Amino acid sequence: MNKILAAIVGILIAGGVGWLVVSNRNAPEESRHQDQTERAPDFVLQDYNGRTVRRADFAGKSLVINSWAAWCPFCRKELVDFAAAQGEFGDRVTIIAVDRAEARDVAKKYTDELGVTEGMIFLLDLSDSFYQSIGGFSMPETIFVDKNGMIVDHKRGPMDIHEIRTKIKNLFAL
């Protein structure tokens, strides 16, 4: 009886491993270029001062939209790098950081501690609708949007300043 049970468990384990290998081949890459361009999702969110900000406010501009949260350890360094990139690229690109479902006080205290609050646009998404609209499943997640409002790259997971610069420069090449 123990041999039969061991054989069944072995088959289940082998099948599970095989399924994981096959399903990971079909999973989205950590960073992917869109084979088919997809329009960036619309949003209507509030900034730290309570002003309403819409994606439509940035029509005709290249955008980097990052989804982050204070509880995300990878977001800390990345937000600093995004603020540096915004300073480097100026008005050639607009970098927007969308906080995931945290109160204004939590988000602003975090960005104040990092010294980046004034370095770019921070928006609050109390319902977490933006993250859901981009099919988020990792943290952080960032979309790169061309001047026509199309997503040209979607990065799942953190980036360093070099990758951020490269992806922004790719926006200009389009």
Please characterize this protein's 3D structure:
By secondary structure, the chain is of the alpha+beta class. It has a single domain (31-173), classed as 3-Layer(aba) Sandwich (Glutaredoxin). Helices cover 40% and strands 26% of the residues. It is built from five helices and eight strands; from the N terminus they run αββββαβαβαββα. The protein has an eight-stranded mixed β-sheet. β4, α2 and β5 form a beta-alpha-beta unit. The protein is globular, with a radius of gyration of 20 Å. It is found in: Cell envelope.
Kindly list the characteristics that best describe this protein:
Glutaredoxin, 174 residues, alpha+beta
Number of strands: 8
How much is the radius of gyration in Å? 20 Å
Parts with pLDDT < 50 across at least 5 consecutive residues: 14-35
Q: What overall geometry do the principal axes of the alpha carbons give?
A: globular
CATH class reads Alpha Beta
CATH homolog superfamily: Glutaredoxin
SSE sequence, one letter per element: HEEEEHEHEHEEH
The average pLDDT value, as a whole number, equals: 87
Produce the secondary structure layout.
Elements: H1 2-26, E1 31-39, E2 44-47, E3 52-54, E4 63-68, H2 75-89, E5 94-100, H3 104-114, E6 121-125, H4 129-133, E7 141-145, E8 150-156, H5 161-173
Parallel strand pairs: 4-5, 5-6
Antiparallel strand pairs: 1-8, 2-3, 2-6, 4-7, 7-8
Main location: other
Domain Thioredoxin: 34-173
Subcellular location: Cell envelope
